[in-house]
Amino acid sequence: AGIARVRAYFAEAAGTAARFLAKADGPRVGAVGFVGWDTHINEGAASGQLANLLGALDGALAAIEKNMGDAWRETVVAIITEFGRTARINGTDGTDHGTGTVAFLAGGALLGGRMVADWPGLKPAQLHEGRDLKPTTDLRSVLKGLLRDHLRVEESVLASTVFPDSAEVAPTAGLVG
After folding, report:
1. Do the beta carbons of residue 136 and residue 118 sit within 8 Å?
2. Among the listed ranges 8-17, 60-69, 116-125, 140-149, which one has the minimum average pLDDT value?
């Protein structure tokens, strides 16, 4: 019953936000935060905490797409986290805080169907500090690319106001059509 409530909550919250965003006079940017992702035990590939949460996230994305209606064609959804995971499973079938992470992008405005990354590898010599996936892309670069190319935010504003002191981080090009 617990995961059913989580799935329903994720879908309802995301779907409600999408209905507001889809309105012609509605907001152009929204944010929804879902907690509970700090799993260290029993993550599970097919069942377990992480598998359940990923299923709930899938339902939230489906609700966004459905409730955006025709506006989905112009939509970008960025799914990001503030921390990564270790490359190896710990003794309690989980992963602890790591360095490298992932960002998922969804939406009809994307030039999608691909992975945009430099894969560092998972061999021991390729891991950051011998335990974590090595970060290869600054998430500010991805977000700068989306904000510049999708919402037309000027690069100078991105480098000084949105992401202060980030002039050295170039926006990722080619994410949206």
Report:
1. yes
2. 116-125
